[in-house]
Amino acid sequence: AARVIDGVKVYGTGGTAVRALDGLCAEFAAGAFTAIMGPSGSGKSTLLHCLAGLDQLTSGRAMIGDVCLGDLGDRAMTLLRRDRIGFVFQAFNLVPALTARENIVLPLTLGGRRPDPAWLAELTEALGIAGRLGHRPAELSGGQQQRVATARALITRPDLIFADEPTGNLDSKAAAELLTQIRRAVDDYRQTVVMVTHDPRAAARADRVLFLADGRVVRELRCPSA
Amino acid sequence: AARVIDGVKVYGTGGTAVRALDGLCAEFAAGAFTAIMGPSGSGKSTLLHCLAGLDQLTSGRAMIGDVCLGDLGDRAMTLLRRDRIGFVFQAFNLVPALTARENIVLPLTLGGRRPDPAWLAELTEALGIAGRLGHRPAELSGGQQQRVATARALITRPDLIFADEPTGNLDSKAAAELLTQIRRAVDDYRQTVVMVTHDPRAAARADRVLFLADGRVVRELRCPSA
Ligand SMILES: Nc1ncnc2c1ncn2[C@@H]1O[C@H](COP(=O)(O)OP(=O)(O)OP(=O)(O)O)[C@@H](O)[C@H]1O
Ligand SMILES: Nc1ncnc2c1ncn2[C@@H]1O[C@H](COP(=O)(O)OP(=O)(O)OP(=O)(O)O)[C@@H](O)[C@H]1O
Ligand SMILES: [Mg+2]
Ligand SMILES: [Mg+2]
Asked: Could you say which of A34, B64, B73, B77 has the lowest number of CB atoms within 10 Å?
């Protein structure tokens, strides 16, 4: 469903240049749930952003299906992201002026579509935020904001879900419920999930774990099926 | 060093009012390291903000030493926060236009003071961010931003350190190093630390753990000394 071939991403130039990705190769099969772990600063967010077309590789190729992201124009890239990709940002990136509900359905609204009320209710109930939908992000706790960001990535049932540390602000019960929702997306709807996490218990819910260090994949583990 | 007596915090009014703190009592002795755990939305950030004078209780008293925070004017509160309190925010609250170094020394700069170069070097080395000091927050990874926010709270060696989930974006090695720095502040310099966390391994480094639920303390555990 997605892959990176010899991905290099360099920020800056000259002496202070940072090689955030250093010849990274990774493949993410359709309908699989992959976790990505690694030290802070090892390139995990950079990998996710390049895979989702939010950032451009310096060299190498990022592909979604048979499409090389570097070949797409702005318009095509925007449509691909809106319709086929859901992204949970490490810093949430919620719109401050919109309510939680408006934030969640924003990708649908931008596409001129309406949410399925039953799916919206089911999703927000499962994530424990159904009672907070009328509030703006500043009126929500950190963990509630994180779950709103997750709901936004799931509401369109996109082919590809990229989640950047989606449980970092959650207690173990809320984290388990969120991971259950992600597991259902994969098991019941054959969506593809790539999740960055620092939490081994979250990684244990995936089908396999890729370990990054210094902008490269250094190890891969298959998870025994639960 | 700090305490809350019958703390009540209500957001909003009428039917949608939220009782974020519901008659909370807690005491934080000088020179002790207290962890606070509890479900997402249980009032942990609200408690920290009220203790640090960043928010006002609806009723009850928040005290630092013998001073009731509700009695202080804006000027006195600002000086207290700048000189005696360090706060690591759940969302970091870094200044986007300033470099990491400028963000870290901002509380000193605002007080017309300069950093001790040896202490700044030691702190940033220990937190693993010494090589990123010239970069602005947007050029840092999530975990690097979190460590810059932590360094800012520690640089003034304040009497009171409030840390709101300071390891949520860190791998286990970086988290352990950050907790070691916090432990040193308590053991070597008799600073007082109140740390909200969802991570049991972080809580295990504290002297005691308070458990919140629905805006109240429901349980307290003393940690066996390591
Ligand atoms: N400005 C506000 N207006 C309305 N409700 C608020 C506001 N700020 C916080 N709340 C609500 O108060 C409750 C407690 O929030 P708080 O941020 O203290 O939770 P928390 O324990 O820190 O959670 P987390 O672990 O998710 O960070 C939550 O239900 C939250 O939605
Ligand atoms: N715009 C930028 N300019 C310069 N350097 C950058 C920029 N963005 C990221 N970096 C650097 O690239 C490296 C990788 O960053 P990335 O955000 O991918 O790390 P990460 O693995 O997600 O870390 P974390 O676990 O802390 O979130 C880091 O050293 C970071 O400082
Ligand atoms: Mg990251
Ligand atoms: Mg909080």
From this structure: B73
